[in-house]
Write a structure and sequence with these properties.
Bound molecules: nicotinamide-adenine-dinucleotide
CATH topology: Rossmann fold
CATH superfamily: NAD(P)-binding Rossmann-like Domain
Low-confidence stretches: none
Strand order of the largest sheet: 3-2-1-4-5-6-7
Radius of gyration: 18 Å
CATH class: Alpha Beta
Length: about 270
Protein backbone atom coordinates (compact mmCIF):
# COMPACT_ATOMS: atom_id res chain seq x y z
CA UNK A 1 0.00 0.00 0.00
CA UNK A 2 2.26 2.76 -1.30
CA UNK A 3 -0.28 5.58 -0.87
CA UNK A 4 -1.74 4.81 2.54
CA UNK A 5 -2.49 8.10 4.31
CA UNK A 6 -2.30 10.19 1.11
CA UNK A 7 -5.20 12.31 -0.06
CA UNK A 8 -5.37 12.80 -3.82
CA UNK A 9 -7.52 14.95 -6.07
CA UNK A 10 -7.95 13.45 -9.54
CA UNK A 11 -9.07 15.86 -12.28
CA UNK A 12 -10.09 14.55 -15.71
CA UNK A 13 -12.17 11.37 -15.46
CA UNK A 14 -14.57 11.38 -18.43
CA UNK A 15 -15.24 7.64 -18.73
CA UNK A 16 -13.68 4.24 -18.04
CA UNK A 17 -11.10 4.76 -20.81
CA UNK A 18 -9.75 7.98 -19.29
CA UNK A 19 -6.14 7.95 -18.19
CA UNK A 20 -7.37 9.70 -15.04
CA UNK A 21 -9.54 6.67 -14.29
CA UNK A 22 -6.55 4.33 -14.68
CA UNK A 23 -4.69 6.57 -12.22
CA UNK A 24 -7.63 6.68 -9.79
CA UNK A 25 -7.93 2.88 -9.74
CA UNK A 26 -4.21 2.47 -9.15
CA UNK A 27 -4.30 5.05 -6.33
CA UNK A 28 -7.31 3.30 -4.77
CA UNK A 29 -5.52 -0.05 -4.89
CA UNK A 30 -2.58 1.54 -3.06
CA UNK A 31 -4.76 2.91 -0.25
CA UNK A 32 -5.08 6.61 -1.21
CA UNK A 33 -8.12 8.62 -0.22
CA UNK A 34 -9.60 10.09 -3.39
CA UNK A 35 -11.55 13.14 -4.50
CA UNK A 36 -12.59 13.94 -8.07
CA UNK A 37 -13.63 16.78 -10.33
CA UNK A 38 -15.83 16.45 -13.39
CA UNK A 39 -16.63 18.78 -16.27
CA UNK A 40 -20.38 19.15 -16.68
CA UNK A 41 -23.43 17.15 -15.62
CA UNK A 42 -23.11 14.46 -18.30
CA UNK A 43 -19.64 13.55 -17.14
CA UNK A 44 -20.81 13.66 -13.53
CA UNK A 45 -23.15 10.76 -14.34
CA UNK A 46 -20.25 8.82 -15.84
CA UNK A 47 -18.08 9.48 -12.80
CA UNK A 48 -20.79 8.51 -10.32
CA UNK A 49 -21.38 5.29 -12.30
CA UNK A 50 -17.66 4.45 -12.28
CA UNK A 51 -17.29 5.14 -8.57
CA UNK A 52 -19.65 2.24 -7.85
CA UNK A 53 -16.61 0.11 -8.65
CA UNK A 54 -14.70 1.77 -5.79
CA UNK A 55 -17.50 1.36 -3.25
CA UNK A 56 -19.97 4.10 -4.23
CA UNK A 57 -19.83 7.78 -5.13
CA UNK A 58 -20.96 8.96 -1.69
CA UNK A 59 -17.61 7.84 -0.24
CA UNK A 60 -15.78 10.47 -2.31
CA UNK A 61 -15.78 14.27 -2.43
CA UNK A 62 -16.70 15.18 -6.02
CA UNK A 63 -16.79 18.69 -7.45
CA UNK A 64 -17.81 20.27 -10.75
CA UNK A 65 -14.86 22.00 -12.36
CA UNK A 66 -14.54 23.56 -15.75
CA UNK A 67 -10.95 24.80 -15.62
CA UNK A 68 -11.80 27.87 -17.69
CA UNK A 69 -13.57 29.16 -14.56
CA UNK A 70 -11.41 30.55 -11.75
CA UNK A 71 -14.50 30.48 -9.52
CA UNK A 72 -15.04 26.74 -10.08
CA UNK A 73 -11.37 26.00 -9.44
CA UNK A 74 -11.48 28.02 -6.21
CA UNK A 75 -14.67 26.23 -5.11
CA UNK A 76 -12.99 22.81 -5.54
CA UNK A 77 -10.15 23.68 -3.20
CA UNK A 78 -12.43 25.47 -0.72
CA UNK A 79 -14.49 22.29 -0.65
CA UNK A 80 -11.41 20.14 -0.09
CA UNK A 81 -10.18 22.45 2.66
CA UNK A 82 -13.50 22.01 4.45
CA UNK A 83 -13.48 18.25 3.94
CA UNK A 84 -9.81 17.27 4.34
CA UNK A 85 -7.89 20.36 5.46
CA UNK A 86 -4.83 19.25 3.48
CA UNK A 87 -3.87 17.48 0.25
CA UNK A 88 -0.88 15.33 -0.67
CA UNK A 89 -1.47 14.69 -4.39
CA UNK A 90 -2.93 16.65 -7.32
CA UNK A 91 -3.48 14.85 -10.63
CA UNK A 92 -4.06 17.20 -13.58
CA UNK A 93 -5.17 14.89 -16.38
CA UNK A 94 -7.13 17.01 -18.83
CA UNK A 95 -6.77 18.80 -22.12
CA UNK A 96 -8.87 20.22 -24.92
CA UNK A 97 -8.43 21.57 -28.43
CA UNK A 98 -11.20 22.25 -30.92
CA UNK A 99 -11.46 19.49 -33.52
CA UNK A 100 -11.16 22.12 -36.29
CA UNK A 101 -7.83 23.29 -34.92
CA UNK A 102 -6.49 19.74 -35.06
CA UNK A 103 -7.64 19.09 -38.60
CA UNK A 104 -6.71 22.30 -40.37
CA UNK A 105 -3.11 22.91 -41.53
CA UNK A 106 -0.83 23.98 -38.70
CA UNK A 107 -0.17 27.32 -40.36
CA UNK A 108 -3.90 28.09 -40.23
CA UNK A 109 -4.43 27.58 -36.49
CA UNK A 110 -6.77 30.34 -35.35
CA UNK A 111 -6.00 32.86 -32.63
CA UNK A 112 -9.10 31.82 -30.70
CA UNK A 113 -8.41 28.09 -31.03
CA UNK A 114 -4.82 28.60 -29.92
CA UNK A 115 -5.88 30.61 -26.87
CA UNK A 116 -8.51 28.04 -25.90
CA UNK A 117 -6.19 25.03 -26.22
CA UNK A 118 -3.45 26.75 -24.22
CA UNK A 119 -5.89 27.99 -21.58
CA UNK A 120 -7.55 24.64 -20.89
CA UNK A 121 -4.61 22.32 -21.48
CA UNK A 122 -1.70 24.32 -20.06
CA UNK A 123 -2.68 27.41 -18.08
CA UNK A 124 -5.04 25.28 -15.98
CA UNK A 125 -2.04 23.49 -14.43
CA UNK A 126 -0.73 26.79 -13.08
CA UNK A 127 -4.14 27.90 -11.81
CA UNK A 128 -4.96 24.55 -10.16
CA UNK A 129 -1.52 24.27 -8.58
CA UNK A 130 -1.85 27.80 -7.16
CA UNK A 131 -5.24 26.93 -5.70
CA UNK A 132 -3.94 23.64 -4.30
CA UNK A 133 -0.79 25.15 -2.84
CA UNK A 134 -2.11 26.05 0.65
CA UNK A 135 -3.51 22.53 1.03
CA UNK A 136 -0.29 20.92 -0.19
CA UNK A 137 1.67 23.09 2.24
CA UNK A 138 -0.71 22.11 5.04
CA UNK A 139 0.26 18.50 4.30
CA UNK A 140 3.97 19.37 4.59
CA UNK A 141 4.41 19.13 0.83
CA UNK A 142 3.04 16.95 -1.91
CA UNK A 143 3.11 15.74 -5.48
CA UNK A 144 1.54 17.47 -8.48
CA UNK A 145 1.46 15.61 -11.79
CA UNK A 146 0.19 16.24 -15.27
CA UNK A 147 -0.05 14.26 -18.52
CA UNK A 148 1.75 15.06 -21.73
CA UNK A 149 2.46 13.47 -25.11
CA UNK A 150 5.66 13.19 -27.05
CA UNK A 151 4.64 15.48 -29.89
CA UNK A 152 6.61 18.44 -28.61
CA UNK A 153 10.13 17.89 -29.86
CA UNK A 154 9.09 15.79 -32.85
CA UNK A 155 6.25 16.49 -35.22
CA UNK A 156 3.19 14.28 -34.95
CA UNK A 157 0.89 15.07 -37.86
CA UNK A 158 -2.51 16.42 -36.77
CA UNK A 159 -1.46 16.99 -33.13
CA UNK A 160 -1.17 20.64 -34.16
CA UNK A 161 -2.09 23.17 -31.53
CA UNK A 162 -2.10 20.51 -28.82
CA UNK A 163 1.64 20.05 -29.33
CA UNK A 164 2.10 23.72 -28.53
CA UNK A 165 -0.07 23.36 -25.43
CA UNK A 166 2.01 20.37 -24.32
CA UNK A 167 5.24 22.31 -24.89
CA UNK A 168 3.90 25.03 -22.60
CA UNK A 169 2.73 22.44 -20.08
CA UNK A 170 6.13 20.75 -19.95
CA UNK A 171 7.85 24.11 -19.41
CA UNK A 172 5.38 24.86 -16.62
CA UNK A 173 6.36 21.62 -14.90
CA UNK A 174 9.96 22.81 -14.71
CA UNK A 175 9.10 26.33 -13.54
CA UNK A 176 6.58 25.15 -10.95
CA UNK A 177 9.02 22.52 -9.69
CA UNK A 178 11.72 25.15 -9.23
CA UNK A 179 9.43 27.57 -7.44
CA UNK A 180 7.56 25.13 -5.21
CA UNK A 181 10.47 22.85 -4.35
CA UNK A 182 11.33 24.77 -1.15
CA UNK A 183 7.81 23.96 0.09
CA UNK A 184 8.49 20.26 -0.65
CA UNK A 185 5.95 20.33 -3.46
CA UNK A 186 7.11 18.17 -6.37
CA UNK A 187 5.82 18.72 -9.90
CA UNK A 188 6.27 16.18 -12.69
CA UNK A 189 4.75 15.09 -15.99
CA UNK A 190 4.03 11.64 -17.34
CA UNK A 191 4.41 11.32 -21.09
CA UNK A 192 2.05 8.51 -22.03
CA UNK A 193 1.90 6.43 -25.20
CA UNK A 194 -1.13 6.82 -27.51
CA UNK A 195 -4.21 5.41 -25.75
CA UNK A 196 -7.74 5.13 -27.14
CA UNK A 197 -9.68 7.77 -25.19
CA UNK A 198 -12.32 10.39 -25.87
CA UNK A 199 -9.74 13.19 -26.13
CA UNK A 200 -7.49 11.14 -28.40
CA UNK A 201 -10.33 10.47 -30.84
CA UNK A 202 -9.97 14.09 -31.98
CA UNK A 203 -6.45 13.39 -33.28
CA UNK A 204 -6.63 12.14 -36.87
CA UNK A 205 -4.42 9.12 -37.53
CA UNK A 206 -3.90 8.26 -33.87
CA UNK A 207 -5.12 4.70 -34.37
CA UNK A 208 -2.21 4.28 -36.79
CA UNK A 209 0.25 5.49 -34.12
CA UNK A 210 -1.27 2.99 -31.69
CA UNK A 211 -0.86 0.12 -34.17
CA UNK A 212 2.72 1.17 -34.85
CA UNK A 213 3.62 0.70 -31.17
CA UNK A 214 3.42 -3.08 -31.63
CA UNK A 215 6.07 -2.89 -34.34
CA UNK A 216 8.43 -0.10 -33.39
CA UNK A 217 8.32 0.57 -29.65
CA UNK A 218 11.19 -1.16 -27.82
CA UNK A 219 8.67 -3.21 -25.79
CA UNK A 220 6.76 -3.99 -29.03
CA UNK A 221 3.41 -3.02 -27.54
CA UNK A 222 1.39 -0.03 -26.53
CA UNK A 223 0.68 1.00 -22.94
CA UNK A 224 -2.53 0.75 -20.91
CA UNK A 225 -4.14 3.25 -18.57
CA UNK A 226 -3.30 0.77 -15.76
CA UNK A 227 0.39 1.05 -16.60
CA UNK A 228 0.22 4.85 -16.65
CA UNK A 229 -1.61 4.59 -13.31
CA UNK A 230 1.31 2.65 -11.84
CA UNK A 231 3.78 5.36 -12.90
CA UNK A 232 1.47 7.90 -11.27
CA UNK A 233 1.53 5.82 -8.07
CA UNK A 234 5.31 6.07 -8.05
CA UNK A 235 5.23 9.85 -8.53
CA UNK A 236 2.61 10.26 -5.81
CA UNK A 237 4.45 8.03 -3.37
CA UNK A 238 7.38 8.73 -1.07
CA UNK A 239 9.50 6.54 -3.36
CA UNK A 240 9.65 9.59 -5.66
CA UNK A 241 10.53 12.04 -2.87
CA UNK A 242 13.67 13.17 -4.74
CA UNK A 243 11.95 13.41 -8.14
CA UNK A 244 10.73 16.79 -9.36
CA UNK A 245 10.69 18.78 -12.58
CA UNK A 246 10.77 15.52 -14.53
CA UNK A 247 9.16 14.14 -17.60
CA UNK A 248 8.69 10.38 -17.14
CA UNK A 249 7.84 8.38 -20.23
CA UNK A 250 5.25 5.63 -19.94
CA UNK A 251 5.34 4.76 -23.63
CA UNK A 252 6.96 1.32 -24.00
CA UNK A 253 10.17 3.20 -24.83
CA UNK A 254 8.84 4.67 -28.08
CA UNK A 255 10.52 8.03 -27.46
CA UNK A 256 14.04 6.62 -27.77
CA UNK A 257 13.49 5.45 -31.34
CA UNK A 258 14.69 7.50 -34.28
CA UNK A 259 12.77 7.51 -37.56
CA UNK A 260 15.64 5.53 -39.10
CA UNK A 261 15.43 2.94 -36.31
CA UNK A 262 11.70 2.56 -36.80
CA UNK A 263 12.02 2.17 -40.55
CA UNK A 264 14.70 -0.46 -40.08
CA UNK A 265 12.52 -2.44 -37.66
CA UNK A 266 9.61 -2.30 -40.09
CA UNK A 267 11.87 -3.45 -42.94
CA UNK A 268 13.14 -6.42 -40.89
CA UNK A 269 9.63 -7.38 -39.74
CA UNK A 270 8.46 -7.15 -43.31
CA UNK A 271 10.97 -9.94 -44.08
P1 LIG B 1 -10.17 11.88 -21.78
O1 LIG B 1 -11.05 12.40 -22.86
O2 LIG B 1 -10.60 10.65 -21.09
O3 LIG B 1 -9.87 13.00 -20.70
C1 LIG B 1 -9.77 14.36 -21.03
C2 LIG B 1 -10.40 15.11 -19.88
O4 LIG B 1 -10.25 16.52 -20.06
C3 LIG B 1 -11.92 14.84 -19.78
O5 LIG B 1 -12.22 14.36 -18.49
C4 LIG B 1 -12.53 16.23 -19.99
O6 LIG B 1 -13.69 16.43 -19.22
C5 LIG B 1 -11.39 17.11 -19.49
N1 LIG B 1 -11.55 18.50 -19.92
C6 LIG B 1 -11.57 18.99 -21.19
N2 LIG B 1 -11.83 20.32 -21.15
C7 LIG B 1 -11.99 20.65 -19.84
C8 LIG B 1 -12.31 21.84 -19.15
N3 LIG B 1 -12.53 22.99 -19.80
N4 LIG B 1 -12.39 21.81 -17.80
C9 LIG B 1 -12.18 20.66 -17.12
N5 LIG B 1 -11.88 19.49 -17.71
C10 LIG B 1 -11.80 19.50 -19.06
O7 LIG B 1 -8.75 11.66 -22.51
P2 LIG B 1 -7.31 11.25 -21.95
O8 LIG B 1 -6.58 10.76 -23.15
O9 LIG B 1 -7.42 10.37 -20.77
O10 LIG B 1 -6.68 12.65 -21.56
C11 LIG B 1 -6.12 12.94 -20.29
C12 LIG B 1 -4.77 13.62 -20.45
O11 LIG B 1 -3.83 12.69 -20.97
C13 LIG B 1 -4.77 14.81 -21.41
O12 LIG B 1 -3.92 15.81 -20.90
C14 LIG B 1 -4.16 14.20 -22.66
O13 LIG B 1 -3.57 15.17 -23.50
C15 LIG B 1 -3.13 13.30 -22.02
N6 LIG B 1 -2.56 12.28 -22.89
C16 LIG B 1 -3.36 11.46 -23.60
C17 LIG B 1 -2.79 10.49 -24.43
C18 LIG B 1 -3.65 9.57 -25.25
O14 LIG B 1 -3.17 9.02 -26.23
N7 LIG B 1 -4.90 9.34 -24.86
C19 LIG B 1 -1.39 10.37 -24.51
C20 LIG B 1 -0.60 11.23 -23.76
C21 LIG B 1 -1.18 12.19 -22.95
Amino acid sequence: MLLQGKRALVMGVANNRSIAWGIARAFHREGAELAFTYQGERLKENLVGLLAELGGADRFPIFPCDVTSDAEIAAVFDGLRARWGALEVLVHCLAFAGRDELTRPFVEISRGGYAQALDISAYSLIRCTAAARPLLEAAGGGSVMTLTYNAVERVVPSYGVMAIAKAALEAEVRYLAAELGPANIRVNAISAGPIRTLAASAVRGISGFRDAMDEVAPLRRNVTTEEVGDVAVFLASDLARAVTGNLIFADSGFHVMSAAGMLELRRKDGG
